[in-house]
Amino acid sequence: QLARRKLRPTILSENAGKSSEGKSAENPISAWIQARSSSQEKEIKFSRKVALPFLSTIKELLGCGIQAGDALQMLSTRLNDPRQKKLASVLWDDLRQGKSLSDGFRNLPDVFDESVVNLVEAGEATGNLSNVLDRIVTNMEERRAIQNKLTAALAYPLFLIGICIALVFLFLFYLLPQIQDLLTSLGSKLPLATRILIGLSEFTLGYGWIVLILLVGGIGSILSWRKTAVGRMKFDQLMIRVPLMGKFFRDTQVMVITQTLALLLENGITMVQSLHMTERSVSNLWMRKSLVEARSKVVEGASLSSAFKSTGYFDEMALDIFTVGENTGNIVPGLKQMTAQYNEFIDKFIKNFLGIISIGVLLTAFSFVALIAFGIISSVFQ
Question: Per the confidence metrics, is the pTM higher than 0.90?
């Protein structure tokens, strides 16, 4: 309001708020409610999950011509999500103190990564904040879509595996003990399939808890080892060398690299700085180490295509696109083309992987049911 009236305050003093304190003292219920709400606000913890919906809302408001400060002030009072509302309040407080939006983002590393902060800073410097936020949101939505595709691809096989495990335990712990006495009372020697079923049931009942403890302990040890610096590096190295799945993990990270690098270069950030920020968007530490070495080669004067070729993660098609982009002086269109191609590769892999896992689980379940049926029927016939 002061800016619209072209007024600038010369003296600011803070109100002690004695009247509100007096009212709170007179009304203990309202004081308790205020204390509870303030404690709940303090307990709110931010995470990366809130970044995409919050930036989407900010983008829509800025696209309507609303200034960033007015948008944050509006969101701090009208949002229903407590985390987004608290985030808008924190950023609005920073803007009221004279900080920029990028400075407010930089103070919240749990929500916004460095690449987002630098892009917002570049958008503020060029006066193109709305378009920059639009590209950031599009980039984050594409990453979210890939994660959702992977989750959806694994949901059905995991459901089938869960059903199969439940049926196996139902047979071993409930059905087989009931019919075991019947099978042994038939007199003659039981067939091999029936003896395998009975032995499997007895082993599970007698030593299953030991196997379960060893399995849980092994998984816990691997997770603890992965949390260490050396363990995380070695684990990430093994992940991209796993047969079949290793290529998927590698292509997913390469798509993140091309997507982030195109977004940074398109908004005026230099190549070396873009490479430095792109490294931090790669979750695989082993691949990140290779990118650091590639950036060092670019700083020393090597071409981008030769530096990326030394990593061993980019195929010949991608390297050719890098070479063409360097020759034409504009590598961004080539990076976008590579992102689209890798996205298509990942979609095909997920569909094929889903089909293979589904067929494998169904065949396993069918084989086990066939073994049960054959073991029971053959013993009765014998």
Answer: no
